[in-house]
Amino acid sequence: MKIDSHLRKIERFQKTISKLDLKEDSETLIEDFMLTSAHYVNAAMHKMGHVKEDNDIKHNKLFGFIKKEKAFGNISEEVANLIGIIEQLRPSYVYGKGEDTEAAKRAKMAFERIRKICTEVLKDEIESKNSN
């Protein structure tokens, strides 16, 4: 997927996220934080030349790929661990019986850090998109 397409998906997911409540919508938020993070990370890796635009890495493979390829340089371990935090919450809280505002808060904190890191990498593309 091209960077611009990732940015459009990110924008749509973030619009949805802004409408949801951590307590009432914890499962959906955890899932949306995962999907939005995957779009951010893939777009950033495209920009840095680690992944071709026609070869996105699926969310469940990001942790291993980022660690193995050192796709974010000296902060690769941090980014991989942040993805891992969100990914590990999904089985219990999205697919399982869990309903937990604290889990959604942990996913949000990981997402916010991923967004900050990737926004820095993608700042030119984001500024260009916002100026149009």
Order of helices and strands: HHHHHH
Overall shape: globular
* N-C termini distance: 20 Å
Structure class: mainly alpha
Q: Could you describe the largest sheet, including whether it forms a barrel? A: none
Number of helices: 6
> What is the tally of beta strands?
0
- Uncertain parts: none
Roughly how much helix do the residues carry, as a percent range?
over 70%
Mean pLDDT: 94
Strand content: under 5%
Number of domains: 1
Instruction: Compute the CA-based radius of gyration.
Output: 14 Å
Summarize the structure in words.
The chain has helices spanning 3-19, 26-47, 62-69, 76-95, 101-121, 123-131. With 132 residues, the protein is mainly α. The chain has one domain (3-131). Helix 1 packs antiparallel against helix 2. The model has no long low-confidence stretch (mean pLDDT 94).
How would you concisely characterize the structure shown here?
The chain has one domain. It is built from six helices and no strands. The mean pLDDT is 94.
Features:
single chain; 132 residues; mainly alpha
Blueprint (SSEs and pairs):
Elements: H1 3-19, H2 26-47, H3 62-69, H4 76-95, H5 101-121, H6 123-131
